[in-house]
Design brief:
Largest sheet: 3 strands, antiparallel
Strand order of the largest sheet: 2-1-3
Strand content: 25-35%
Order of helices and strands: HHEEHEEEH
GO molecular function, one term: ATP binding
Distance between the termini: 57 Å
Structural class: alpha+beta
Number of strands: 5
GO cellular component, one term: microtubule cytoskeleton
Protein name: Tubulin glycylase 3B
Number of helices: 4
Helix content: 25-40%
Pfam families: TTL
Organism: Culex pipiens (House mosquito)
Shape: extended
Length: 135
């Protein structure tokens, strides 16, 4: 067992290393350090045309090669909430109206869950693992 002062010194060193790591891996603050990004075409639905990249430079090259296309890029959630080891989403419908100074929100009573068809694995970018709206 280490004496108390050695443990405190070790903790200080680890904190310093983590701080240094976040300088080199800024995505670590967002979610994970694997630099995974998802690119969605701006004019499609049902998961069509979605690309997953593990290198932001490759993502930028892809976008630059398609200058007429509009995209939405976002950092991929590397540690998602899972049910039975699969990704899911919740679909809930609302109607929001604003008349004069009155804001009203109606919520449709029913909602539903959609699941990906394969277990989550960040080493495999197959659509059936990462998309819940794949039809």
């Amino acid at each position: 067992m280490l004496p108390g002062y050695e443990i405190l010194s070790l903790v200080a060193q680890v904190k310093k290393l983590v701080l240094e790591a976040t300088k080199h891996f800024p995505d670590m603050k967002i979610d994970g350090v694997r630099n995974v990004w998802i690119l969605k075409p701006g004019n499609r639905c049902r998961g069509l045309g979605i690309q997953i990249f593990n290198d932001d430079r490759k993502l930028l090259e892809f976008v630059d090669a398609n200058p007429d296309q509009k995209y939405v890029a976002q950092k991929y959630i590397e540690k998602p909430l899972l049910i039975h080891s699969t990704k899911f989403d919740i679909r809930q419908y609302f109607l929001v109206t604003f008349t004069g100074n009155n804001l009203r929100v109606w919520m449709f009573r029913d909602c539903y869950l959609r699941f990906s068809s394969r277990e989550f694995n960040l080493d495999d970018y197959n659509e059936s693992i990462h998309l819940t709206n794949y039809s």
